[in-house]
């Protein structure tokens, strides 16, 4: 791929509107714990024409959009940094992969024509099909339990519970062993070609099932299909649907009921679901359908929420741990005994921090909680 120069990226992202106000740096969770990192400086350096592909700080950004939702000049900093990363990898630069790059290797393998044993997690309790109007996109969950066994990632149980919730809505979703990673991490790690290969494979797989709706229990998969697949591939021929929104409608139409659970919980907004996909209410509405649940909000929630500290299995550092530990303390300070999130990766990152810093709080997946309480 031929690298574009920094002037082209400045033009494309209109970063010349930057007011040099520093709101981005003041909003940034990384800059709070890592003073060498400043989104304002990255923008300013680009404006004076400095090539930034070799700057290691472009990989420190969590692409969490906390800066861009506040930027008075409407500069989409995460998108700008995503594009710089594409140019950086084209010129041989890279970030630091967490877990020795194991997850990136798993993603790369999935671009190949491998026969996968992807559905062995299904039990007789989950009703699925090979064809149908509704498809459930499982994503990378089957790999997480193996890699993160030490922190009991629970991602496969999350997939089972997602299917059980879809079944409770009276729907038997199609699933496929040929599915692969949605490409989210490749897209944000500067691996655009790998993203396109994964996306193309998924589109072919899903189209063979005849699905009109594709349901996602992972915010990254949902956002990537909803906002990025059409950018590269045009009309998908089906509608990406978030499981949370699917369930809100199903509860209303089918009268799904939940057993009581006396718990005080707080909800962590995943960046891809909240700021990037604009979904704040559906997960909260679902939680409050469980009788006995008391939802208390953290000070930094909704648009003001804070990232779980690592994105794309990259640059996991002492800064990530500081952000995660602060988040767990914030959750605990609400009086909640449970932090609920709707993203399997947030769950993993926060559990990892909890293991290192034991606090009186448990971390739960929203869909696990709901599936366990189906009456
Ligand atoms: S918040 Fe926006 S306008 Fe202000 S310094 Fe950052 S990028 Fe520039
Ligand atoms: S996207 Fe998030 S991590 Fe990156 S500069 Fe903006 S606020 Fe900081």
Quick synopsis:
The chain has 375 residues and is of the alpha/beta class. Helix content is 43%, strand content 8%.
Compile the SSE list and pairings.
Elements: H1 6-13, H2 23-27, H3 29-33, H4 39-47, H5 77-90, H6 102-109, E1 134-137, H7 141-147, H8 155-168, H9 184-188, H10 192-209, E2 213-216, H11 219-233, E3 239-242, H12 243-254, E4 263-268, H13 281-287, E5 293-295, H14 318-333, E6 338-341, H15 344-356, E7 362-365, H16 366-372
Parallel strand pairs: 1-2, 2-3, 4-5, 4-6, 6-7
Q: Mind explaining what this structure looks like?
A:
The protein is α/β, with parallel strands linked by helices and 375 residues long. 43% of the residues lie in helices and 8% in strands. The protein has helices at residues 6-13, 23-27, 29-33, 39-47, 77-90, 102-109, 141-147, 155-168, 184-188, 192-209, 219-233, 243-254, 281-287, 318-333, 344-356, 366-372; strands spanning 134-137, 213-216, 239-242, 263-268, 293-295, 338-341, 362-365. The strands form two sheets. A four-stranded parallel beta sheet has the order 5-4-6-7, with helices on both faces. Strands 1-2-3 form a three-stranded parallel beta sheet. Helix 1 (6-13) packs antiparallel against helix 5 (77-90) and helix 8 (155-168) packs across helix 16 (366-372). The radius of gyration is 20 Å and the shape is globular. Bound molecules: iron/sulfur cluster (2 copies). One iron/sulfur cluster binds at residues 24, 27-28, 30, 39, 61-67, 77-78. The site of one iron/sulfur cluster has 14 residues, from helix 2 and helix 5.
